[in-house]
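Still learning folds. Look over my entry:

…
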Amino acid sequence: MIDEDDFESPPPRRSLFRRKRVLIPLAALLALLVAFLLLRTPDTDRDAMIAKYGGSDATFAVGPAGQRIHYRDQGRRDAPAIILLHGSNASLHTWEPLVKRLGADWRIVTLDLPGHGLTGGTPDKDYDATGMAAAVDVVAAKLGLDHFILGGNSMGGWVSWRYALARPQHVDALLLLDAAGMPLRAGEKAPPLNLGFRILQYPVGRWLMERITPRDLVEKSLRGSVEKQDIVDDAMVDLYWELLRFPGNREATSLRAMLDRDPPMADRIGAIAVPTLILFGKEDRLINATAAQSFHERIAGSEVVLLDGIGHLPMEEAPDATADAIADFLKRRFVPRAPDGPETP
């Protein structure tokens, strides 16, 4: 006799599938959480970084919006002043090779722009050209500089020519080193972004970059920016990595990545009337070197210097050639102002 129980089906598999459907995602989320906690890189300590990269005599200028701008005033104090602005995610340290080479003849003022270096995040969170220009004004006012030569690299070059347009009365000459801001020429393609900038193109990437900033990612981004690979050593990577994690700087980097840099402003650049040097590394991997020609065509009387075998950071990759080009240009083209303000005849 066959028992009816023999015909009972085994426990349905649906409940097992349901459990798996819940447990597998939970396990994945747990793994992601553990990975996040292990990889998370916190901000560096403010005071420790100021001591390490600013020294005991680190100087700061306080602005009307609560900015605390880190700056250095070096070189010959009785000489005309050159204010130099660094590029994105860099700091005033990038100019030290030029300070050593030009400081005997010029007063060299460098600063960490808002959201960079030892300046860090600013209360107003203004990381557009206006906020950067305001930082220049804060430092210039602190030092009593009513006019000066202004120069910048990459983003700092973009800020420099924007500043020259907005405040021409303060700028005696302009130095654009691999400067940003020119539109692509006909038929050109933008160069591929380095790894760090690629990640910043996406909301998730920006969120992660504010919390996870591996040292090797910084090194890869640096190496992708320069042609002279031998300048990238452990000290340089540590400098960029630690200052990127200075309080407020990673948030500022994310906010800048979402800014519209107002491309139509490039159409107004022809209004710049001061002597202008345009210096580019021919092997720039971030900005097409042909941008030098675009600047030259739009700024009357400008001069162009192209450096063979040099990438995006000519002041660090070729400091001698860069300093020589600047010194030669200023010797020929810079016209000191008389004490009462107008230029000498």
Observations:
- Confidence is low (pLDDT under 50) at residues 31-38, 340-345.
- Residues 46-333 form a domain with the Rossmann fold fold (CATH 3.40.50.1820).
